[in-house]
Structure formats: C-alpha cells, structure tokens
Description:
The chain has helices at residues 7-23, 41-56, 78-86; strands at 32-36, 62-67, 92-93. The protein has 96 residues and is α/β, with parallel strands linked by helices. Strands 1-2-3 form a three-stranded parallel beta sheet, with helices on one face. The protein is globular, with a radius of gyration of 14 Å.
Amino acid sequence: MMLRLSNSDRKRLLTPIKKTILQYQMIEEGDRVAIGLSGGKDSSTLLYVLTILREQLPFHFDLIPITLSLGFKDLDILPLKEFVQDLGHELKGNKH
C-alpha cells in the first residue's frame, strides 16, 4: 500500500501529531508501541499515521498492531489482516 498524502493533508494531519509526540516525548527511541485494532477508522488511522511518522521521526520505534477475538461467530478479520500487512506489519492477537 502506498503511504501517500498530499502536501496539504501532510501539513494538516502529520505536522501537529509529530510536533506533539516530540514535545511531550510520547514516543522515544526503542519504544514498542502496541496499537489495539478494532477494524474501525480510529484505530486504523492511528496505525496508518504512526507508520508514516516512523519514517519521519529522528529515532526508531516499533509498532505492534494487535487485535483480540471477542468471541463473535463468523467474524471475518481478513480485511484487517490484509490492511496491516499492506502497511508492512504483522497482526498479533489471539485466535479468530
């Protein structure tokens, strides 16, 4: 998946997030950041944005996407797994 944002989207979305991460030291060198993925737009956007910022921030940190089975029968998480893989990650969690 191509991680592309227009210059205006980059400025509007990534710049304030990057500034906040750096100002408040929310993520630091060597951190392992787990992101709980529900498949919804909030958690998916967080993974997407942090994946882009991982290349821009002046230090290395790991992203670990996770999901948990809530026991719903016939829940298909294949689209979520594919999204995570397209971003270059492996989805961790219990069996679905």
